[in-house]
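Onboarding guide, step 5: your first structure request.
Type a short instruction followed by the sequence, for example:

Predict the 3D structure of this protein.
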Amino acid sequence: MPTDVLTTEDLLHETSDDLAKEESLPGGATLTPDLLRRMNAYWRAANYVSVGQIYLYENPLLKEPLKLEHVKPLVVSHWGTTPGQNFIYVHLNRVIKKYDLNIFYIAGPGHGGPAIVGNVYLEGTWSEVYPNVTQDELGLKKLFKQFSFPGGISSHVAPTTPGSIHEGGELGYSLSHAFGAAFDNPDLIVACVIGDGEAETGSLATSWQSNKFLDPRTDGAVLPILHLNGYKISNPTVLARIEHEELDQFLRGCGWAPYFVEGDDAEKMHELMAATIDKAIEDIHQFQDNARNNNETTRPRWPMIVLKSPKGWTGPKVVDGFQIEGTFRAHQVPLLVDPAHPDHVKLLEAWMKSYKPEELFDENGRLLAELAELAPKGNRRMGANPHANGGLLLRDLEMPDFHDHAVTVNSPGAVEVEDTLVLGSFLRDVARLNQGKRNFRVFGPDETVSNLLQAVFEVTNRQWDAREFSNDEFLAPEGRVLDSMLSENQCEGWLEGYLLTGRHGLFNSYEAFIRIVDSMFSQHAKWLKVCRELPWRRDISSLNYLLASHVWQQDHNGFTHQDPGFLDHVINKKADIVRCYLPADANCLLSVFDHCLRSRNYVNVVVAGKHALPQWLTMDQAVVHCTEGAGIWQWASNDQNNEPDVVMACCGDTPTLEILAAVSILREHLPALKMRVVNVVDLMKLQPSTEHPHGLTERDYDSLFTKDKHIIFGFHGYPWLIHRVTYARTNRNLHVRGYKEEGTITTPFDMRVQNDLDRFHLVMDVVDRVPNLGSKGDYLKQQMQDKLIEHKHYINAHGQDMPEIRNWKWSAAK
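The system replies with structure tokens like these:
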């Protein structure tokens, strides 16, 4: 196990028996002179191709003098990180071949798109995926033109980039994605390049701790490569400006063994990087061998590499009197080449010719054979690694029959059950059936037990590779549950990496705090949207959220834990990607979640309560209802032979309870009133069918909600969301009650009262809107107002809801 920082001198004196078989190496060097020459040439080729992508759409091999018309009219990209990533890529290629490794590459500084695209092209994968971009002069021209150009590809690493599972747009999640990919992939090494700007994000700073959750026996390995090039867009980076000793101590304090590769002399840096990466790979193999064959249980201090190189390495040194290389000015486009800077055409030409393309490509524009052979072959190429196109590896879950977990409902509302507790037993069986396949995990920030899913611990443990004490529960080096880290960002990142590499899982969270991953969800949804447009990208398992501990049951937590706004955020994404389900009871929850775990290429959001609530539907009824997504509950309605006077609609477990309680009051006091009860499970049903594939047609919507009757709608979340998804419908008489940002530490029913979602307010809504109720309506409204006052006095005196609320049961229609 490495304990000291390796220096250049140390590494140059380490010998490699494998490389010495064919040729002795001078001075114990890792690279033969010929291999060093060819690797440096390959690096030059990658840099040349990167610069060409940024600037050119004509004259790709500079066979004629460069002119302004050969340059793209709008040059947009990032150069600063690119040469360093090219350097890393060529060195990873070498160790893949030397050790026959299964490695793919995650580009944390994903805005270095020219590097990854260029390397995937040089290794041949790009042309296999996109046959029109051939490995010749014409193909090189197409490669250059498409980059950051209308109708082409983005300047970031994206789904269009073979070999990638990590979008380069938003920084912070590369290392958590890498660990998610490594879980349950024992022969995989994920090389994760982390930019020093990215390292300043909260998500990345936390993800250094992911090494406490990696089992060397059953998981793969992650090789972080912290790329210190010193600058962000216009500022220095923190980790590049602290003392070497402080950085070393920081990384060691996070449980890593850092190896430093520092400098700007290409020849020395190649040798140092080669020796360092060999050492890291050998460390990884030793740790895994000790764990797998020698029963070593000590948590390894996994190796990582700190690569310190100039920003914009090999690029323009000085332009117009300003230093470029090694400064923040190299971050994006280091050289403006446009009509306002005509003299810069010659500078660009000199820069590109400094890589000596005539020594890299033949007359036809193909990479020279002696260089091309440096790349791995077949699926060993990082751009072709099947783990980076996870649908290739995806296998269906073995699913239990969810009917076996059904709650017996002899009559609506006769029994109360904690919905997520029932779901927990179903998930337990999913975990049990797929133990051998090692392709299913439950993720969450220390909330699996709190959300009543603890039945999963009957068959598995929490994965944990740090210290254990005697009173800990369910901790083990290997387990199907990853919930021992209190970070929504890490759980989301781990799960995304797990799904993107061809496995299945779910993320359970408190509803209010899922908002922490709003932007991560957005990035994943965008990824799925683009993947749908790429026929070579295979479908992956859906990203499934279970949101429990929701807004309406936060007795002791109060206002901070009350936010149902994730639903509002989710429906902004493309309709063919997102799904939102709000099952009314446990049987509906089982039916919905079985569907979600079987689905592909969606983001499914399921909101369910963990407190005991009435159960409404038998399992057979629940399956039919959830398949329809929305429907009339005939047993609760009394308009079968007449036009309804009012539609009482609900979406969510708590709104369903209050709507039905309001209906029971109205039936008792206004027996002539005709009411239709409509329950919505699939929120997207409310959208028009022209807007969402699950949406109801105009005719079907009107058959449920009528064209002109008043609709009193109890909704789980913010009421304006319902108005938003139904704005184009014919019936404009929609009155929605939901969460309106009122709350505190109070009783469950008082939360509903504070937000006007309680049965008393709902009854008054009906009285205020349905005409011709006469004095009966007036008296009923007064009674409801009296009840609200009575309620307030009671909870202030007793600290709990009134008995008539706590003990309420649905009664048959009168």
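Each response can be followed by summary notes, for example: The mean pLDDT is 94.
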